[in-house]
Amino acid sequence: MNDLVQEYKNSLKLVRKMYNNAVEEDKKIIAGMISDLEFSIEWLTTGRHPGHKRGIERRAAYQREKLFDPLLMQKYFRSSEPVYEWDDHEKQDVITSWDRERIEDALSVLTKREREVYLMSRGYCLTYSEIANYLCISSSSVQTMIERAERKIKKRIKESLFCMCG
To answer: Which branch of life, at top level (predicted)?
Structure first.
């Protein structure tokens, strides 16, 4: 990482020299390059978005954890669920039996409706509005069901004998 920061700093020195020797019409473009390099250097050295007081790792958007690998979830759903009218994907059977057991254990705590909504969102990557249209419910209901399902899954993973971290 230090090598990368040093390369950015060296580039910044070169661009500043270019700025001093540039004609007026090129200075605006070069000034933008300087600004971008300074922004990147600050981000890399502090680990924070420049201007923000909190570390990026503590920001709400980055605190959201993925309970499952999204690609594994898609493979699971496409290999085990019945075919729905909105699904145009072919059946797949490419996950291990161990992965299948871990996922089924975690999903066992969901109601039928929560499982269907979770499948549509996480397994088939449909948007909340698409799910709402298919199921004739509101987008906020979809969001609520997804959030509830994720809380249940997270709790189940913590309590389960199946370790979801490996």
So the answer is: Bacteria
